[in-house]
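Example 5.3 — PTS system lactose-specific EIIA component
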Amino acid sequence: MATREEISMVGFALVAYAGDARTAALRALNAAEAGDFEGAEAKLDEAQKDINEAHNQQTQLLSQEAGGAEMDVTFIMVHGQDTLMTTMLLIDQSRYMIRMLKRIKQLEDKQ
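Solution (predicted structure tokens):
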């Protein structure tokens, strides 16, 4: 059984990794808006690396629970889950928006 402290520590890790990923995704959007698509892709790669780390933390607890371990829900874990999921969505949306910004740039360059 994971202790409340262990669960909370995973929650803190989720917030930290997902928070870093969120920052990188927003920087990717800013870079793309400025026309720096290489920089945007690099920031998206950074965001993906951080979100993968957060997901790995989450998976460890999910595996324990699937194996029958009892889990106490802590507020920080709920916050970590929320941060993880919203950041995953932000990364997906950032990829889409960056593709659209590239297309807009290509169309503008043709004129």
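Remark. The mean pLDDT is 95.
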